[in-house]
TrEMBL record:
Cited CDD domains: HAD_PGPPase, LPLAT_AGPAT-like
Keywords: Acyltransferase, Hydrolase, Transferase
Domain of life: Bacteria
Pfam annotation, one family: HAD
Organism from which the protein derives: Actinoplanes oblitus
PANTHER family per record: 1-ACYL-SN-GLYCEROL-3-PHOSPHATE ACYLTRANSFERASE, PHOSPHOLIPID_GLYCEROL ACYLTRANSFERASE DOMAIN-CONTAINING PROTEIN
Alphabetical list of SMART domains matching this protein: PlsC (SM00563)
Name recorded for this polypeptide: HAD-IB family hydrolase
Family annotation (InterPro entries): HAD-like_sf (IPR036412), HAD_hydro_SerB1 (IPR006385), HAD_sf (IPR023214), Plipid/glycerol_acylTrfase (IPR002123)
GO molecular function: hydrolase activity
Length: 480
């Protein structure tokens, strides 16, 4: 029997809640497509940190592990050996960096939804994997998973020895580790959920009352059929395609041509503002159409309710610029970091929008730039600010900086929050391609800033960030 993510989430919602119900997720091939260890090795190769002998050992272990009758633990042992002599804090930093640069883009979007469904029901959620803690922790933090059952690494004075404190947590040992964790946490395994993709996890899945082979390998698919287990198929992260490449190329060309038309109109007519608005409208409509991207917007009426305003949005993708431009359309500019001024992709956009370029390294210049932005707000031009300051690797929100809030307070204009749900799925932050699809957008009620004080600014920022987080977790019904 095949089931969807929606089917399983409904079973989670309608079933018993509370911490005595467990939800155990395998890592590689389950929460993420592919193998996290491959991302770590790609990083080592790119940085010339892996020699020929090490690469040969790892490749042989990988081939052995993928063979039907091979040794799935071979790659794990090879991975442990590469850590010999490395400091624990260094490995943790590498794990965080590789997660942001590579692994984050491989998380299955519906896996995130599934984890969230279990957390909402108060279940005890854990990653159960033969991987090591430095591999798992960045992803677990991002998904909000509080517990990790894994292969723990042996240390001596903060340096890894290249061995585990136990054997690899794989196969029967993984099942035993899950059972031991369940006993300690007083979890009812008969009512608990398990998710995994490989035949090596058969014992683990048999340990729980609600096993779900997830995007399973053929051997596990056969075992699931024999046991009448429901097979869960989640959609994969976007992969490069010819259509996406052509669409992205067409969108880039269309955007620049349209902006050029707007610039030319402004010069010929002597009305720079009208030319800017024309260029923006043509560019965003053309770019989104050629990329095959549509918008599904809730709360669109709030966009023009309180202009001029400071519009703030979460940021995960280069696609955000087109989406936000399509919403705002006219009489706006942006605040951007000074380094982006020299990005070739920003040359034409920068000329049209004339953003307020902030030099974070020079406090006096930054203050002067913000004063100019306040003057533009008072003159009727809205300003777009991305308060996280950089593209985030996943939908998880970053820290909100204060600049947008100071601007709104000083100019006496409202803040209008714009929540983008899935631009990162269509164009991940480290991808050069935009994939066709629909972007979900929620525009929230304008927030007046009258009466705000500097002393309460941290509280106001935290409240707004919480509103973003709540909207992402409990998406509103779309207005179409």
């Amino acid at each position: 029997m095949n089931v969807t993510a929606a089917d399983v989430m409904e079973a989670v919602r309608s079933g018993p809640g509370g911490p005595r119900i467990g939800a155990f997720f395998d890592l590689d091939g389950t929460l993420v497509r592919g193998y996290t260890v491959a991302a770590l090795y790609q990083d080592r190769i790119r940085r010339c940190q892996a020699g020929p002998a090490e690469l040969a050992r790892v490749l042989l272990a990988a081939v052995d592990g993928m063979a039907r009758d091979g040794d799935p633990e071979a790659i794990g042992r090879a991975g442990l050996a590469t850590l010999r002599g490395m400091r624990a804090d260094e490995v943790a930093a590498i794990g965080q960096r590789v997660f942001a640069e590579r692994i984050a883009g491989a998380i299955r979007p519906e896996a995130r939804d599934l984890v969230r469904a279990h957390l909402r029901r108060g279940h005890t959620v854990a990653v159960a994997s033969s991987a090591t803690r430095p591999q798992i922790e960045p992803l677990a933090r991002d998904l909000g998973i509080p517990h990790i059952i894994c292969t723990e690494l042996e240390q001596s004075d903060g340096v890894y020895t290249g061995r585990g404190t136990t054997d690899l947590v794989c196969g029967e040992r993984k099942a035993a580790a899950v059972r031991a964790f369940a006993r300690g946490a007083r979890i009812n395994l008969r009512q608990s959920f398990g998710y995994a993709n490989g035949a090596e996890d058969l014992a683990f899945l048999t340990s729980v009352g609600r096993p779900y082979p997830l995007n399973p390998h053929p051997a596990l698919t056969e075992a699931a059929a024999e046991r009448d287990w429901p097979v869960l198929t989640l959609r994969e992260p976007k992969s490069p395609t010819l259509w996406a490449g052509l669409g992205t190329l067409g969108a880039l060309t269309g955007v620049n041509v349209a902006l050029g038309v707007g610039m030319a109109y402004g010069l010929l007519s002597g009305d720079r503002r009208r030319g800017m608005n024309l260029g923006i409208e043509l560019a965003v409509d053309t770019g989104l159409a050629l990329a095959g991207v549509k918008l599904n917007v809730t709360g669109a009426e709030h966009i023009d309710r309180a202009r001029p305003a400071v519009f703030v949005a979460n940021h995960q993708s280069t696609l955000d610029v087109l989406v936000l431009g399509a919403l705002l359309r006219h009489d706006f500019t942006a605040v951007a970091k000074r380094e982006a001024r020299f990005d070739p992709r920003m040359l034409v956009i920068g000329t049209i929008l004339n953003p307020a370029w902030i030099d974070r390294a020079n406090l006096a210049n930054a203050k002067h730039t913000l004063e100019q932005a306040v003057d533009r707000l008072r003159g009727g031009t809205s300003i777009l600010v991305l308060p996280e300051g950089t593209r985030m690797p996943t939908p998880r929100l970053g820290r909100f900086k204060k600049g947008a809030f100071h601007l709104a307070m000083q100019a006496g204009v409202p803040i209008v929050p714009i929540v983008l749900r899935n631009t990162g799925e269509l164009a991940w932050r480290r991808s050069l391609l935009v994939h066709p699809g629909t972007v979900d957008v929620a525009v929230l009620d304008p927030i007046p800033t009258t009466g705000w004080t500097v002393d309460e600014l941290d509280k106001r920022i935290a409240e707004l960030r919480d509103r973003f987080a709540d909207t992402l977790a409990n998406w509103p019904v779309s207005g179409g």
